From TrEMBL:
Belongs to the binding-protein-dependent transport system permease family. This is sn-glycerol 3-phosphate transport system permease protein. It is a multi-pass membrane protein. GO terms for biological process: transmembrane transport. The keyword Transmembrane helix applies. GO terms for cellular component: plasma membrane. PANTHER family: ABC TRANSPORTER PERMEASE PROTEIN MG189-RELATED-RELATED, SN-GLYCEROL-3-PHOSPHATE TRANSPORT INTEGRAL MEMBRANE PROTEIN ABC TRANSPORTER UGPE-RELATED. It is found in: Cell membrane.
Length: 294
């Protein structure tokens, strides 16, 4: 067995120097921006949660107080006494559950039809969906209000849900994923006599669970955090959602001493979304990347 001897002038130190430079480049070009971006997102949320346990004197001060000396739930009790949070939770839950459920079903069936059903003007409809992705929802605020208010939908659940049933993002994401599915799978089901309904819910939907979970999560977060439309279409606090109730909470206590109460109200608003995210987060990356490479 022969052994290979490296020449004496092998530039080993130089390779080590390049390797060190590459590591430094990864740290500066990769990890450092990631850490900065993460801190920019996480720190305000952490500060809000910590401040909700502080006393008003620890928030309205010129000194930087990181942690409360005597953590208490007084801000949460004060927020609950000012605004009817159980009612706001119920309204947000109803609007989010029904609205996001219908959105996901409509996106699923629309994407299936765009990929697996033959009908005229399919490409024109898909282009219209892409155009809808570019249009901000605030553009349709006034027409929607005139239409829904004209039908008597002010201060009703259906008036809150109906205008937002279409989801161009969910339809687009599901369509791109469906295009990556093997055609043989659907052809075999068609030969076995399966109709479109059975093919969709027995074959396509099960193999697309991560993508559907991603669409569901994005839809749930959007519905739960929706602020402008519930503010416009509701007049009474009994039909308001949590983000609108948070505004009413701020209007009821406008002085700086109420900052802890507002922080507590904000924590109550985002807590359900964080729980849903923790449940579905393992599907997000898989769902967003499926269909990206065909």
């Amino acid at each position: 067995m022969s052994t290979t001897t490296l020449p004496a002038d092998t530039p080993t130190p130089r390779r080590r120097q390049r390797s060190g430079a590459a590591v430094a480049g990864d740290l500066i070009g990769g990890y450092l921006p990631m850490i900065i971006a993460t801190l920019a997102v996480v720190l305000p949320l952490v500060w809000m949660i910590i401040s909700s346990f502080k006393s008003p004197g620890e928030i309205v001060t010129r000194e930087l107080i990181l942690f409360p000396a005597d953590p208490s739930l007084a801000a949460y009790e004060r927020a609950s006494a000012t605004v009817d949070f159980p009612r706001l939770f119920l309204n947000s839950f109803i609007v989010t559950a029904i609205g996001s459920g219908l959105k996901v079903i409509l996106a699923l069936t629309t994407a299936y039809a765009l990929v697996f059903v033959r009908f005229p003007f399919k490409r024109i409809i898909f282009v219209a969906i892409l155009v809808a992705l570019m249009v901000p929802p605030q553009v349709s605020l006034l027409p929607n209000y005139v239409f829904i208010a004209g039908l008597g939908g002010t201060d009703t659940y259906w008036g809150l849900i109906l205008p937002g049933l279409g989801t161009a993002f969910g339809t687009f994401l599901l369509r791109q994923h469906f295009l990556s599915l093997p055609k043989e799978l659907l052809e075999a089901a068609e030969i076995d006599g399966a109709g479109h309904f059975r093919r969709l819910f027995s074959i396509v939907a099960p193999v697309s669970a991560p993508t559907i979970a991603t669409v569901a999560l994005v839809t749930i977060v959007t519905e739960w955090n929706e602020y402008i439309w519930p503010l416009v279409i509701t007049n009474s606090l009994s039909m308001a959602t949590l983000p609108v109730g948070l505004t009413r909470l701020q209007n009821s206590e406008p002085d700086p001493s109420a900052y802890a109460m507002l922080m507590a109200g904000s924590v109550l608003v985002i807590l359900p979304v964080l729980i849903v995210f923790a449940i579905l987060q393992r599907h997000i990356v898989a769902g967003l990347t499926q269909g990206a490479v065909k």
